[in-house]
Design brief:
seven-stranded mixed sheet; alpha/beta; single chain; eleven-stranded mixed sheet; elongated
Length: about 575
């Protein structure tokens, strides 16, 4: 086999490792009457080691811009007349012979080589195709009053802090796909084209920038050109149709879906409205929703065919978001009805069961102040668990029990256990328990009905504190009644805080280690103290106007508390 390894070695040696292609960088500086600053900008750019070419496009200047740029060592291309910033950028782009092109204004007073590097480095590192800059200052007036509102309306997926920053860099190959505006609309046009065409664009912070503030007349011109560019791009890429026609169709679709939900809600939950009215509302909603959803789909398909894909999906989702949410809500509602449907002996029955929202407004101790519970499905206990009742933790909280408590139903005693994995809303009952509780396999029980079904069940509820176990006994009530809080202390240390229903003048007994200790007559507020060997047990009662379904057992029923030290 040695010959195989020899051949493999020669093959591996013959493979040439691809070297990263060297990318040349050009910097284009459009200038119009910038004799005071253009030379300094050129000198700063020259300090950047990876810049291979500096081109100043003299856009019909009447001062010494050309001479200053040449003296600084830049290549100068002249326009005979002032054609506008966009034309100047396009001229430089066409003449540049490098792979990456950066565009930098000629009127920046505090430009540094680090700022230039921050613009170009992400492209050299392969992180993006285009970079645009943002500055450490508030956005300009044209940006805030025109560009951002229009972009947010027509192109909501574009969320740059300064879409009109003026300084940017790009791979030359991607600029071939972009339409250069001839005026001040060039910056926002590049941003929009890149976004819609799916070209990656990154906003980089280059710190503070100082340059001449434009006079109001120039700002007016700039605003007009920016608005024109955004509107033209919105028309070109189908965003006007998306906002106008599709927007109307979406609104009408939502009206139809809302009528469907209203009709279904009326049929199932509003007793005083005749069934026929609910059906009519539902049918009208279906007709409207289907008609306008088809309209939305047709318009959307037409728009997709005319528009490059790119990031259109983001805008599409944002604009269609209300319709998407309405459809999801309706589907969830319908799935609830389907899940509650039963077909038997030629009869279709639909009886939806809602979950139970519980908000406790009293001060009694609770695991959760607000919770949503149920509904639960009844099933038979699994083999070898005829002495267990499995129920979800939500059901346990509603009944005031927990795992390993015992529950006596008629003459049978069962251990409370948690549900099995994959059965989050199922209550498994032994056959005898189902018979005693008058429920059958497949029954769906709302959380609020649990206390009715388990009414009269005798519970031994375990509380544990350090090495002490306290067994509290109570009967499940079918309705909430006025309750009292109580605290048990052992040798002046609190070991239990609980609440439940006491009856005035009833007698309740205390056991320790299973042996009778003492009993007391409940009068509403007094505390009770008992001595057990070297230990002192004290029970303090407090009326907090709370409610409970736990009726504590009086002396003629069973012990109230059994403390196991």
């Amino acid at each position: 086999m040695y010959w195989f390894f020899v051949i493999l070695t020669f093959l591996l040696a013959s493979i040439k490792t691809a070297k990263p292609k060297y990318q040349k960088v050009s910097v284009i500086i459009p200038a119009y009457n910038e004799e005071d600053t253009v030379a300094e900008v050129v000198n700063v750019v020259k300090k950047v080691s990876f810049v291979d070419e500096i081109i100043v496009v003299n856009d019909g200047s009447s001062d010494r811009t050309e001479e200053e740029a040449l003296k600084a060592g830049a290549i100068v291309i002249n326009h005979e007349t002032n054609k506008g910033k966009g034309e100047a950028l396009y001229t430089g782009y066409k003449e540049a012979e490098c792979d990456i092109i950066a565009f930098i204004d000629a009127d920046i007073y505090n430009l540094t080589s680090k700022k230039v590097e921050a613009m170009i480095k992400p492209i050299l590192d392969g992180k993006t195709d285009i970079t645009k800059t943002k500055f450490s200052r508030a956005s300009g007036r044209v940006t805030e009053l025109t560009a951002k509102p229009l972009l947010n309306f027509f192109f909501p997926e574009i969320s740059f802090e300064q879409p009109l920053s003026g300084q940017f860099a790009a791979k030359k190959e991607v600029l071939k796909r972009i339409n250069f505006e001839s005026d001040y609309g060039v910056d926002v046009g590049i941003v929009i084209d890149a976004d819609v065409l799916g070209i990656s664009i990154m906003e980089v912070d280059i710190g503070a920038i100082e340059h001449d503030m434009s006079p109001l007349a120039d700002l007016n011109l700039m605003a007009n050109e920016v608005v024109r560019t955004i509107i033209n791009r919105a028309n070109k890429y189908g965003r006007v149709i998306m906002i106008d026609d599709i927007g109307y169709f979406i609104r009408m679709s939502i009206v139809g879906l809302s009528l469907i939900m209203l009709g279904l809600f009326t049929i199932f939950f509003v007793k005083y409205v005749p069934l026929a009215i609910g059906v009519i509302i539902t049918v009208i909603g279906i007709v409207i929703a289907v008609y306008y959803i088809i309209k939305v789909i047709v318009k959307s398909v037409v728009m997709f065919k005319k528009t490059p894909r790119g990031n259109l999906i983001k805008s599409f989702i944002k604009i269609h978001f209300p319709l998407i949410i309405s459809i999801i809500v309706l589907l969830l509602m319908i799935s609830t009805f389907i899940g509650a449907a039963h077909f038997e002996n030629g009869v279709l029955s639909i009886e939806p069961n809602s979950r139970n929202l519980i908000i406790y407004a009293d001060n009694s101790p609770r695991d959760n102040t607000i919770s949503v519970r149920g509904p639960y499905t009844v099933d038979t206990a699994i083999e070898n668990e005829s002495d267990q009742i499995r129920m979800p933790s939500d059901a346990m909280m509603s009944l005031g029990v927990k795992v390993n408590d015992t529950m006596k139903i008629n003459s049978e005693t069962y251990v409370i256990n948690d549900t099995r994995d994959g059965e989050p809303d199922m209550i498994r009952l032994p056959i005898e328990a189902k018979t005693s509780l008058n429920v059958e396999t497949g029954d769906v029980i709302q959380n609020s009905r649990l206390k009715d079904i388990f009414s009269g069940a005798h519970v031994n509820h375990n509380h544990e504190f350090n090495n002490t176990t306290i067994v509290e006994q109570f009967l499940v009530s079918s309705r909430d009644m006025h309750a009292y809080d109580y605290e048990v202390t052992l040798d002046n240390s609190s070991i239990l805080n609980s609440s439940g229903i006491f009856t005035i003048n009833n007698t309740y007994s205390i056991f320790v280690e299973g042996d009778y200790l003492d009993s007391f007559v409940f009068d509403g507020n007094s505390s009770q103290t008992f001595e057990y060997g070297d230990h002192s047990v004290k029970v303090v009662f407090n009326d907090t106007n709370s409610t409970s379904i736990k009726i504590f057992t009086a002396v003629n029923q069973a012990e109230f508390l059994d403390i196991n030290l």
